[in-house]
Amino acid sequence: MALDRWIALVILLMSTAYGYTAFFTMDGTLAPFMRNNPIWPSSFPKLLSVMAMIGALIIVLGFEKGGSDPAAGDINYRRLTDYKLGQALILLGLMVAYALMLRPLGFLGSTVGFLMTGALILGERRFIVLTIIALIAAVGVWYLVQEVLGIFLRPWPYFLGV
Q1: Is the CB of residue 119 less than 8 Å from the CB of residue 134?
Q2: Is the distance from CB of 130 to CB of 120 less than 8 angstroms?
Q3: pTM for the complete prediction?
Q4: 10 vs 4: CA distance, rounded Å
Q5: How many CA atoms lie within 13 A of 157 on its CB side?
Q6: What is the rounded CA–CA span in Å between residue 9 and residue 53?
Q7: Please, are residues 45 and 26 in contact by the beta-carbon 8 Å criterion?
Q8: What is the 3-state secondary structure (H, E, C) of 17-65?
Q9: Could you report the per-residue pLDDT of 70-118, keeping only the tens digit for each?
Q10: Judging by beta carbons within 10 Å of its beta carbon (0-12, 13-18, 19+), is residue 141 exposed, middle or buried?
Q11: Do 106 and 152 form a contact (C-beta atoms < 8 A)?
Q12: Residue 91: how many CB atoms within 10 A of its CB?
């Protein structure tokens, strides 16, 4: 059995245990007034476990594969070194650095830096367009989170005290 099917089998077992917990043990401790609600605290875990089981079964049974030959876009696990693993690992490191720089640089500085550096790693060379897009995206997300949703998100570095 291929690696993807083994992983799907593990996910199937985990989601089955999760579904058993959601369907049979979570609802037993509900308060009496909550039993008449249309949506219970276990509704989302039930839906999530069923969807995970269906997805894992599709992979385990091989329904997602049309033919036996790998398509042009499929990842060949035997030739993993042919892919750009360096870029992927650098982007993962950049994500960690972004999370660590949120407090010292603020949301706007760290987000603009993350978007610009990530795009440069992936090969974008139009620096002016890249800067404009990164600024618009960072300010747009900050505005939506801060002003529309009302969740405080420090835009500037903490040492500025703004």
Answers
A1: yes
A2: yes
A3: 0.55
A4: 10
A5: 8
A6: 9
A7: yes
A8: HHHHHHHHHCHHHCCHHHCCCCCCCCHHHHHHHHHHHHHHHHHHHCCCC
A9: 565 666 667 777 778 889 899 999 999 999 998 889 999 999 999 999 9
A10: middle
A11: no
A12: 15
Q: Which two tokens stand for residue 135?
A: 């600024």
- For the record, the structure tokens of 40 come out as 């219970």
Which residue do the tokens 């367009």 mark? 129
Alpha-carbon gap, residue 153 to 150, rounded angstroms: 9
Closest CA to 56 of 11, 20, 3, 2: 11
68: tokens are: 């036996």
Residues in the chain: 162
Burial of 88 (0-12, 13-18, 19+ CB in 10 A): exposed
